[in-house]
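Fold this sequence, please.
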Amino acid sequence: MGLRAKFNLVMLAAMLAGLGLASALSWVMVRSNARSQVLNEAAIMNGQAAAIGRYTVSEIAPLLVSQFNRRFLPQSIPAWAAQTNFRTLQQGFPDYSFRAVVVNPTNPADLPEDWQHDIIQALQREPSRKEIVTERDTPAGPILSVSRPVIITDGACLQCHSTPAAAPATMVDLYGPDRGFGWKLNEVIGAQIVSVPMRLAFERADQTFLTVMAGLGMVFLMMIVLLNVLLHYVIIRPVRRISAGANEVSMGNMDAPEVMVRGRDEIASLAESFNRMRRSLANTLRMLGE
């Protein structure tokens, strides 16, 4: 096996090892960044839902209090307002969602699905936990959900949710006396769940990963080409000249021209040493002939 082949095998092994390490680190990095981006989107949606809730409590509910004796208006409920706004958002972004689900809701539309019920149970087991992040696969791709507990911290809420007798009559007329009662103070009754699709973020991450790896591959390829050119002109070609000169001397041709190698590197030093040896050998043979 020639020097060039050995050199290229070593470079190829180094390139594959480097690309393998770079691909592993890049994959972890781009995927982590993609997940962070999705979590940031979920945080923005949670902030928007909280802002809608605060606006409903401070601006909308006071305007509707006078109507409660005639009919119950769910527009005064922060969770109802937030979910209604997000349903409008879903018309343009169907994979995004916000739900405030309760195990025993007043409105049957707030009943949790099976996977949401599992989250509520996890929050009930750990009432001090502020947030749960979960991922699930759907036909549209992976979905990341950020869930926060719904806890009754205001005793005023129990006026509507303790017993049917204590609740506004208009609310009981609208939803019936069998749902949304028996809630207790400081109890986890449900969860606010923001769901954000991960597909687009992961597709961008994969594209970034492929671009980075293609760039690294081109850099390694260019390095191998340039190093091969350097190897040929700096090492292989001068060594071939020295080898050819040594072959001529070994055949007894003392009139062969000296090896000419420019530079001050190790190969030039080797050529100079060979030329001195050739001259010394020629002088010795000439002295012996005399």
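DSSP finds seven helices and four strands in the chain. The chain has two domains: 3-11+207-289, 41-199.
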